[in-house]
Amino acid sequence: MGIRESHTFSAWKWLGFVSAVWVQTISGNNYTFSNYSDAIKTLMNLTQLQLNNLSVAKDVGKAFGLLAGLASDRLPTPVILLIGAIEGLIGYGAQWLVVSQKIQPLPYWQMCIFMCLGGNSTTWMNTAVLVTCIRNFRRNRGPVSGILKGYVGLSTAIFTDLCSALFSDDPARFLVMLAVIPFAVCLVAILFLREIPQSTSVAAEKEEARYFAIFNIVAVVVAVYLLTYDLIGSTNQVFSLVFAVILLILLASPLAVPIYAFVKSWRLVGFEADMERQQPLLKEETMSPPSETKEIITEVAAAASADDATVLVEKTKPVIGEEHTIMEAMQTWDFWVMFISFLCGVGTGMAVINNMAQIGLALGHADVSIFISLTSIWGFFGRIISGSVSEYFLKKAGTPRPLWNAASQILMAVGLLLMALALPGCLYIGSIVVGMCYGVRLAVTVPVASELFGLKYYGLLYNILILNLPIGSFLFSGLLAGYLYDAQATPTPGGGNTCVGAHCYGLVFIIMAMASLIGFGLDVLLAIRTKNIYTKIFNSRKPKKSLAASNGQ
């Protein structure tokens, strides 16, 4: 591969990553239910249990993400993105028709179907983005996961703040955004997101580290900008319009990385031409003696034969850290420890996110948009910090990634207990803590799964883990929160109900805190069981660093 060709591939890879960031920026629409749930509850005269089950139907859509996982190894990335875009347009478009009262409220079962379609749409988007980018940046899985999942975390805040700034929190217009904007962004990403041939050079790895630092900085600036807007707040139309324009510019700014990479590749045209003129001389100088070449070939053939023999012996039972089929992964204890600990983390987080509107009203807050944004923004910080920090300590000390999940579970339990006490300001602190810990869990588990079970079947493996979102939503939100809330609630005219006071969700928070502690224990167990794997990953990078140092002398 020529120098210019190599850099051109690199530029296209970064352009694909930018489009992936944009897709993730709009694929957090599943976390926005609280923005329009009250409108649906009022229009359809639902109880809290019925409303929560609608939310569960939305999350059940993620269970059908298994289809996206199976398709990821059989269909090209653009087709997977297109399926997700069309599903989202239909699912959220139907909800908009109901909330805007363009049509009569649909039967409950039909609303469940459209909720499910909207929820499933993001699994196709996330699968296309994560599988492609993890494969394109195999040596930086932590930062890739942190950045992409971080923008998913910001997605809710971006949609919420844009709707607040431009449409005064109108739930009907909010649903128009959820239907149309993801569809348009996915159509753009179809043009650029695809797998790119890898470069394994030390220089390429250092370049990736520099560029990821830029993406991290931009993402943090976007998060701080959104947080500042939430804290300041404004009803001034001009101010809101300026906010929206600056936000869009910030979201477009990562384009500077692939543009720079393209310019860099064009500058190398002349350099490559000079290299080609010197090629005969270089070949003579670098050619190995025949005897040496023959010896190398013999050694490689012997090593290959040994590897083949090992594969034949051990093919039926790969060890952790090697490529696993889905059935092989599911036959290990480590998979189920990771699966259940993931359930404890994301299930409790989803319950708080889905019920934020009612939690806020129960604790005396008429406007809950600030809490929804805080959960989203701090979810971003949890994702992006944990991705980069876990990668740093893995490279520096071989620290097992599951330890970061364990730390997040302890903090989650503290946040839930604070909300159970219903102290003044507890919902502000609780929103921040739950958002951050939920973000850590999502960002860290993505690379953990690939490191323990390989990348070959990663698309399907990822979507099996994501089954925890609908399962957790059903257990903690649909059953636990729904039943306990209705048991405390007072019926309202028309068939709904309402509840005000700390008792509405107090027991729910305590039970979820206990579940978080169970998750903590499982994460510690997984860290102990996989310590050898992370030690091997750490040691495998030592020779490369030593070689790079010696070459520089």
Automatic annotation (TrEMBL):
Residues 1-28 form the signal peptide. Residues 13-259 form the Nodulin-like domain. It comes from the Eukaryota. Residues 322-534 form the NFD4 C-terminal domain. GO terms for cellular component: membrane. The chain crosses the membrane at residues 79-96, 108-134, 174-193, 213-232, 238-263, 335-353, 359-381, 402-421, 460-485, 505-528. It is a multi-pass membrane protein. It is found in: Membrane. InterPro entries: MFS_trans_sf, NFD4_C, Nodulin-like. Keywords: Membrane, Signal, Transmembrane, Transmembrane helix. PANTHER family: PROTEIN NUCLEAR FUSION DEFECTIVE 4-LIKE (PTHR21576:SF78), UNCHARACTERIZED NODULIN-LIKE PROTEIN (PTHR21576). This is Nodulin-like domain-containing protein.
